[in-house]
Amino acid sequence: MAAPPTDPNLGLVPAPATASGGEGSVVVPDGTPLVCAPELAPAARWWRRVIDEAFAVTLLPVQAPAQAPVRPPAQAPARLPAGGTAVVLDLDPALPVGGYRLETGGRTALVHAACADLAGAHAAAQTLRQLAGPQAFRRAASGAPLVLPVGTVQDAPRFPWRGVLLDVARHFLPKADVLRFVDLAAAHHLNVLQLHLTDDQGWRVEIERYPRLTEVGGWRRESTVGTWRTGTPDGQPHGGWYTKSDLREIVAYARERGVTVVPEIDVPGHVEAAVAAYPELGTRKVPHEVRTTWGVSTDVLDPSPEALAFFRDVLDEVCEVFDAPWVALGGDEVPTTLWRASPQVVARAARLGLVDDAGEPDVARLHGWFLARLAAHLRAHGRRAVVWDEAFGPDLPADAVVTCWRGWAVGARALAAGHDVVMAPEQSVYLDHRQSDHPGEPVPVGFVRTLEDVHGFEPFPAGMDVPDGPGRLLGVQAQVWTEHLDSARRVDYATFPRLAAFAEAAWTSTLPGRRGPCTPATTAFVERLRRDHLPRLDAAGVEHRPLDGPRPWQTRPGVAGHPRDLDAELAAGGWEGVGGWVEEPAPAGAPDDGKDGA
């Protein structure tokens, strides 16, 4: 169903900064010229492919002169065929970074998109796809014409970093599913995909120098179904990894859609898969298997020169494959239980001058020391380290980006200390958390985070004193952890349509400040989603959660979760947040201990 003429957003998700509809519609026929500035060619190339597949409409590419002067909309673009019968993508550097101005049915062209840069062109192309209706999200033509409503859209992003994390370590997703996830992220104007490639339960990236990382660390003998506290093993081996060629393809595919892939290699915790492959990397240095349960393991790296050299080699190969300016090093959930029990590690901290206020060796500071050296190695490659907020402290280099997941206060402190920050609080934007108290909600872990809750997300709570520099708020990121999402279907259910709500909070700079359940802004969003956007997701084959609860086949009867009470935990923790884990002594002889965050 087309958006009603009174819809100020033209049915677009995320909502644009400004939009206005006109009367009638524009039909784009087969053979229409596509005039494009050379700098915007990737976005034009993508748009041509999409409409050729969905409508059997072939646009004829015409390259505009390089660095052509920007023209007012009333003037005809260079080489524009007579009669305004072309689709035109122009450069206009006067627009905000990442922004665009789109006109359909104007005097000079069927479609005219003036774009600040390539990022703006990608956003304009995605907007055109949405305006073309659900058929534009299908892979084959049905005979329907390519029809666009007459109107204008002017838009630009709220945040430069609009990210989503996809965890492929806990449950591996085949390459085709990752490429599809890239498409869906791009369709929502998200521009960063953090790919969580390594963890205790699996190592998913080929490292040619260390083949056992995938040969041994790339699979586990079984998985836990449900929470580790009461869950049961499924007895089914699970595994998989990406070759370097696979990952180069993912990176190139994402780049063509305006998405930057940020690889995450998690150290010095969450490393049981690596330590299973190379036991000498661990603190205990004893053989063991890839972890089969969830939670936080006390088996962390020995913060030794040998481990540093090993992971420098790993990062060398990672930097060969990924072209992002950032590489994520993890740094979260690093129990020091085994470090404290090791005389060698304690002596190493003393030799390095890592002491506490009383002058005693402080093994906890080896956490920051280790990450700082890997960050320096990345800097030599021209990359910046990204770390989770547990790594924030005096030993963390100032150029490291801090992703804050445990709460808001640590984000404010990191900004005050001069770090660039990405806000990703589990209290708001962990999409593996349950979507309602519905008894059929599958594997009910974490906090209840409804669609309306996510739409109300703000990086910092209203009334919180957030420093104005010297660090920058780069943006925001949603997380899709997959301990309990064992297939692409389960990823779809947990992620959509809440990712659409997150995307609007991340992109749209003109949203009312008051959003969330029972607010006019969010009520209007849900109606726009129901009327306009869910049909697009349906056409794309996304098995999203229905707005009124799970379908029977989306439930997981009898699978134990671990629900948490957000109000109670916020009352206890306030803006400090409540995420993380509580370090406890490791049970004798039992490596599978710890606490999961859900």
UniProtKB/TrEMBL annotation:
The active site is at E333 (proton donor). The keyword Hydrolase applies. It catalyses: Hydrolysis of terminal non-reducing N-acetyl-D-hexosamine residues in N-acetyl-beta-D-hexosaminides. InterPro entries: Beta_hexosaminidase_sua/sub, GH, Glyco_hydro_20_cat, Hex-like_dom2, HEX_bac_N. It is an enzyme of class 3 (hydrolase). Residues 1-24, 542-563, 577-598 are annotated as: Disordered. It comes from the Bacteria. GO terms for molecular function: beta-N-acetylhexosaminidase activity. Belongs to the glycosyl hydrolase 20 family. This is beta-N-acetylhexosaminidase. It comes from Xylanimonas oleitrophica.
